[in-house]
Amino acid sequence: MHQAAAMRRHPAFAQIQTCATKPALGAALRGLGMTTAFDQPHGSADFGRMAPHRSDDYLYISEVIHKTWLSLDENGTEADAATAVMMRPGAILRPNPPPPIEVRVDHPFLFAIQHVPSGTCLFLGRLVDPR
Asked: Are 41 and 30 in contact (CB under 8 A)?
């Protein structure tokens, strides 16, 4: 019996970077409705189980990046995936307080001291020369 030689042919195998999110996934996740974790509206993110949530100091997600890798060869397939969630500290900024009101008392005036709960006038006076 005569055996014929067999020729084996297969496609070239290579390493393939299947996905490196650019732009990052943050915009897509916000578009799908995951806005609170990204602190939209401002001050809404609450990761209090990871770090204390105070109005002047809290965490929110700033970006999400995902990357995958795939390798095919005659021995099989290997794949990896990694996701990174980047967080930043945030604070609910209070608006700047209004500038103080300037009161000039450079002319004669009347004044009163009143007990607010009862409305009783406790003292009534007049300042004639405020120099």
From this structure: no
Exposed e or buried b for every residue in 80-115, given b needs 16+ CB within 10 A?
A: eeeeeeeeeebeeeeeeeeeeeeeeeeeeeeeeeee
What mean pLDDT is reported for the chain?
78
Residues 6+ apart with CB under 8 A from 70: 15, 16, 17, 18, 77, 78, 79
- pTM above 0.85? no
User: Which token pair is 93?
Assistant: 């900024």
Type of residue at 58: Y
Residues 51 and 91: their CA atoms lie apart, in Å, by 13
* Cβ atoms of residues 48 and 55 within 8 Å: no
Which tokens is 129 given?
């020369």
The pLDDT tens digits for 57-78 are: 889 999 998 887 777 666 767 7
Question: For residue 91, what pLDDT is reported?
Answer: 75
